Amino acid sequence: MVNKPVAEACLRNQQPIAEILQQYLGDQRCLLEIGSGTGQHAVYCAERLPQLQWQPTELAGNIAGIDLWRRDAGLDNILPPLILDLDQPWPQVAADNIFTANTVHFVSQASVDNLFAQAGQRLPVKGLLMIYGPFNQGHQYTSEGNRGLDQWLKTSVNPQAGIKDIGDITTLAAVNNLTLIARHTMPANNLMLVFRR
What is the pLDDT of residues 48-72, one digit of tens each? Predict the structure, then answer.
Protein backbone atom coordinates (compact mmCIF):
# COMPACT_ATOMS: atom_id res chain seq x y z
CA MET A 1 0.00 0.00 0.00
CA VAL A 2 1.50 3.33 -1.12
CA ASN A 3 0.65 6.43 0.90
CA LYS A 4 0.05 9.61 -1.04
CA PRO A 5 3.34 11.55 -0.74
CA VAL A 6 3.41 15.17 0.39
CA ALA A 7 6.28 17.62 -0.13
CA GLU A 8 6.02 20.66 2.14
CA ALA A 9 7.94 22.78 -0.40
CA CYS A 10 5.18 22.17 -2.94
CA LEU A 11 2.59 23.51 -0.54
CA ARG A 12 4.62 26.71 -0.22
CA ASN A 13 5.46 27.33 -3.87
CA GLN A 14 2.59 25.85 -5.89
CA GLN A 15 0.54 29.06 -6.03
CA PRO A 16 3.34 31.35 -7.33
CA ILE A 17 4.42 28.66 -9.80
CA ALA A 18 0.86 28.28 -11.11
CA GLU A 19 0.53 32.05 -11.51
CA ILE A 20 3.63 32.18 -13.73
CA LEU A 21 2.52 29.19 -15.78
CA GLN A 22 -0.84 30.86 -16.35
CA GLN A 23 0.94 33.90 -17.80
CA TYR A 24 2.68 31.82 -20.47
CA LEU A 25 0.51 28.76 -21.01
CA GLY A 26 -3.01 30.15 -20.96
CA ASP A 27 -3.56 29.35 -24.64
CA GLN A 28 -1.34 26.25 -24.83
CA ARG A 29 -2.49 22.65 -25.15
CA CYS A 30 0.27 20.28 -24.01
CA LEU A 31 2.89 20.37 -21.25
CA LEU A 32 5.57 17.81 -20.39
CA GLU A 33 6.65 18.01 -16.74
CA ILE A 34 10.12 16.66 -15.97
CA GLY A 35 10.67 15.38 -12.43
CA SER A 36 7.08 15.55 -11.17
CA GLY A 37 8.14 14.50 -7.68
CA THR A 38 5.06 13.79 -5.58
CA GLY A 39 2.62 14.89 -8.29
CA GLN A 40 1.33 17.84 -6.26
CA HIS A 41 2.37 20.48 -8.81
CA ALA A 42 0.67 18.53 -11.59
CA VAL A 43 -2.64 18.44 -9.73
CA TYR A 44 -2.55 22.02 -8.46
CA CYS A 45 -1.50 23.55 -11.77
CA ALA A 46 -3.60 21.35 -14.05
CA GLU A 47 -6.69 22.28 -12.06
CA ARG A 48 -5.96 25.95 -12.78
CA LEU A 49 -5.07 25.38 -16.44
CA PRO A 50 -7.95 23.11 -17.51
CA GLN A 51 -7.24 23.56 -21.23
CA LEU A 52 -3.71 22.18 -20.77
CA GLN A 53 -2.94 18.48 -21.12
CA TRP A 54 -0.39 17.77 -18.39
CA GLN A 55 2.08 14.88 -18.78
CA PRO A 56 3.87 14.03 -15.51
CA THR A 57 7.16 12.09 -15.59
CA GLU A 58 9.48 10.78 -12.90
CA LEU A 59 11.91 8.06 -11.96
CA ALA A 60 10.27 4.66 -11.61
CA GLY A 61 10.19 4.68 -7.81
CA ASN A 62 7.98 7.79 -7.69
CA ILE A 63 5.38 6.84 -10.28
CA ALA A 64 2.95 5.19 -7.85
CA GLY A 65 2.79 8.26 -5.61
CA ILE A 66 2.12 10.57 -8.56
CA ASP A 67 -0.65 8.28 -9.76
CA LEU A 68 -2.33 8.45 -6.34
CA TRP A 69 -2.48 12.25 -6.60
CA ARG A 70 -3.73 12.02 -10.19
CA ARG A 71 -6.46 9.50 -9.43
CA ASP A 72 -7.63 11.31 -6.29
CA ALA A 73 -7.85 14.61 -8.18
CA GLY A 74 -10.07 13.10 -10.89
CA LEU A 75 -8.92 15.68 -13.46
CA ASP A 76 -9.32 14.76 -17.13
CA ASN A 77 -6.28 16.80 -18.20
CA ILE A 78 -3.59 14.91 -16.24
CA LEU A 79 -2.21 11.94 -18.14
CA PRO A 80 -0.87 8.80 -16.41
CA PRO A 81 2.74 9.44 -15.31
CA LEU A 82 5.56 8.12 -17.46
CA ILE A 83 8.99 6.91 -16.36
CA LEU A 84 11.67 9.38 -17.45
CA ASP A 85 15.32 9.40 -16.44
CA LEU A 86 17.29 12.38 -17.72
CA ASP A 87 20.26 10.12 -18.41
CA GLN A 88 18.32 7.49 -20.38
CA PRO A 89 16.44 7.66 -23.70
CA TRP A 90 13.24 9.63 -23.23
CA PRO A 91 9.82 8.16 -24.00
CA GLN A 92 8.16 9.34 -27.18
CA VAL A 93 5.70 11.92 -25.95
CA ALA A 94 4.32 15.22 -27.19
CA ALA A 95 6.08 18.26 -25.74
CA ASP A 96 4.71 21.59 -26.92
CA ASN A 97 6.19 23.06 -23.72
CA ILE A 98 8.36 21.64 -20.93
CA PHE A 99 8.29 22.53 -17.23
CA THR A 100 10.44 21.35 -14.35
CA ALA A 101 10.58 22.44 -10.71
CA ASN A 102 13.33 21.77 -8.17
CA THR A 103 15.07 19.30 -10.46
CA VAL A 104 18.14 21.02 -11.92
CA HIS A 105 19.97 21.46 -8.60
CA PHE A 106 19.26 17.85 -7.57
CA VAL A 107 21.06 16.34 -10.57
CA SER A 108 24.52 16.44 -12.14
CA GLN A 109 25.60 18.87 -14.82
CA ALA A 110 25.60 15.98 -17.30
CA SER A 111 21.91 15.42 -16.57
CA VAL A 112 21.19 19.12 -17.07
CA ASP A 113 23.06 18.96 -20.38
CA ASN A 114 20.76 16.10 -21.41
CA LEU A 115 17.67 18.05 -20.36
CA PHE A 116 18.59 21.00 -22.57
CA ALA A 117 19.64 18.81 -25.47
CA GLN A 118 16.29 16.99 -25.42
CA ALA A 119 14.34 20.23 -25.02
CA GLY A 120 16.18 21.75 -27.97
CA GLN A 121 15.32 18.75 -30.11
CA ARG A 122 11.74 18.13 -29.01
CA LEU A 123 10.21 21.56 -28.54
CA PRO A 124 8.50 23.12 -31.54
CA VAL A 125 9.50 26.58 -32.69
CA LYS A 126 8.38 29.05 -29.99
CA GLY A 127 7.94 26.18 -27.52
CA LEU A 128 8.91 27.04 -23.93
CA LEU A 129 11.22 25.40 -21.40
CA MET A 130 10.35 26.70 -17.92
CA ILE A 131 12.66 25.91 -15.00
CA TYR A 132 11.91 26.71 -11.35
CA GLY A 133 14.52 26.52 -8.61
CA PRO A 134 17.55 28.20 -7.04
CA PHE A 135 20.40 29.50 -9.20
CA ASN A 136 23.76 31.09 -8.52
CA GLN A 137 24.59 34.42 -10.15
CA GLY A 138 28.14 35.23 -11.18
CA HIS A 139 29.12 31.90 -9.62
CA GLN A 140 28.08 33.27 -6.22
CA TYR A 141 25.30 32.10 -3.91
CA THR A 142 22.38 34.50 -3.74
CA SER A 143 21.65 33.68 -0.08
CA GLU A 144 23.04 31.78 2.87
CA GLY A 145 20.09 29.44 2.56
CA ASN A 146 21.16 28.51 -0.95
CA ARG A 147 24.73 27.99 0.24
CA GLY A 148 23.48 25.55 2.87
CA LEU A 149 21.23 23.81 0.36
CA ASP A 150 24.12 23.36 -2.06
CA GLN A 151 26.32 21.83 0.63
CA TRP A 152 23.53 19.50 1.73
CA LEU A 153 22.90 18.35 -1.84
CA LYS A 154 26.57 17.53 -2.41
CA THR A 155 27.04 15.69 0.87
CA SER A 156 23.64 13.99 1.31
CA VAL A 157 22.09 13.57 -2.13
CA ASN A 158 24.69 13.36 -4.88
CA PRO A 159 28.27 14.69 -4.96
CA GLN A 160 27.64 15.83 -8.56
CA ALA A 161 24.44 17.69 -7.67
CA GLY A 162 24.36 21.34 -6.71
CA ILE A 163 22.99 24.76 -7.58
CA LYS A 164 23.83 25.73 -11.16
CA ASP A 165 24.89 29.19 -12.33
CA ILE A 166 22.40 31.17 -14.38
CA GLY A 167 25.12 32.32 -16.79
CA ASP A 168 26.21 28.75 -17.48
CA ILE A 169 22.59 27.68 -17.94
CA THR A 170 21.95 30.52 -20.40
CA THR A 171 25.03 29.53 -22.41
CA LEU A 172 23.93 25.89 -22.43
CA ALA A 173 20.50 26.96 -23.63
CA ALA A 174 21.94 28.92 -26.53
CA VAL A 175 23.92 25.89 -27.69
CA ASN A 176 20.61 24.04 -27.90
CA ASN A 177 18.67 26.75 -29.78
CA LEU A 178 16.95 28.04 -26.66
CA THR A 179 16.88 31.70 -25.64
CA LEU A 180 16.23 33.06 -22.16
CA ILE A 181 13.23 35.37 -22.56
CA ALA A 182 12.29 36.00 -18.91
CA ARG A 183 13.41 35.43 -15.36
CA HIS A 184 10.93 35.77 -12.54
CA THR A 185 11.90 36.23 -8.91
CA MET A 186 10.10 33.63 -6.82
CA PRO A 187 9.77 33.00 -3.07
CA ALA A 188 12.63 31.63 -0.95
CA ASN A 189 15.46 32.78 -3.26
CA ASN A 190 14.18 30.83 -6.26
CA LEU A 191 13.74 31.88 -9.88
CA MET A 192 11.55 30.83 -12.76
CA LEU A 193 13.61 30.89 -15.96
CA VAL A 194 11.69 30.89 -19.22
CA PHE A 195 13.44 29.81 -22.42
CA ARG A 196 11.98 29.84 -25.92
CA ARG A 197 13.11 27.66 -28.79
Answer: 999 999 999 999 999 999 999 999 9
Domains, the chain, ranges and CATH?
A: 8-133+165-196 (3.40.50.150)
pTM of the model: 0.94
Beta carbons of 182 and 126 less than 8 angstroms apart: no
> Which residue type does 12 have?
R
Q: How far apart are CA 11 and CA 44, in angstroms?
A: 10
Confirm if 30 and 97 have CB atoms less than 8 A apart: yes
Distances (CA, A) of 65 to 10, 79, 106: 14, 14, 19
The whole-angstrom separation of Cα 47 and Cα 150 is: 32
Cβ atoms of 57 and 82 within 8 Å: the answer is yes
Whole-number Å distance between alpha carbons of 50 and 48: 6
